[in-house]
Amino acid sequence: MTHRARTRMCAVLATAVLAVSGGYAYGAPARDAMDQDIETAVQGVDAYWNAHWSEFFTETYVAPTVLGEYDGASADVPTCDGEPLEDDNAFYCKTAEDYIAWDTDLMRSGYRNGDAFVYLVVAHEWGHAIQNRLEAELRTIDGELQADCLAGAELDGAARDGTVVFDEGDVDEVRMALVRGADTTPWTKEGDHGSAEERVDAFGLGQELGVEGCLPEEVSTEGAAAVLDR
Ligand SMILES: [Zn+2]
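YS: structure for the whole thing
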């Protein structure tokens, strides 16, 4: 039921977000392919929430700050709540700083297995920012898998809006990146984020069912869920 309403709205909103994406693709200075993919992911996920937030939640959507790349091995590492960000990891900093960031080497190593990896990282961290805007009852017990589910919903939604191109093989790329990276980086390590299979399943759930599929089952989405004041 809710899905049908959303599909109708997509057609109307797609034009506006396409313009944003097109403007970026042709107007940006020359950068390497990975940087462009990261930027496309950022633009696409942000445009998705701008266009669709009100279909699921009350209040207004406020984007997190995108701090972007950092080098966790350098002396000049950004901090969250006073703590330097970990090398080879990616973060949503949920203090008042409210930013997302990722280590360059994490992105480079994942990108070698396919471009889908950087989309997953951006969308997953954005998913944590979204969680942080929701009331506790809308968060699932396993916050990491909910972030993977939201990543699937965001990227599938962005693909339907036309801001991100998501190929059929991309889910396999995500799986491969998670399996191969399993013990090499904190971001892909099994203990912190769930096993690769659990993560791919959560991502797939979000792709298939959208944002509602990522919310706890007992929560009715009928009454538009409230979010925290920011
Ligand atoms: Zn996470």
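YS: worth flagging: Residues 46 and 63 are 7 Å apart (CA to CA).
IM: good catch. Also Confidence is low (pLDDT under 50) at residues 1-28.
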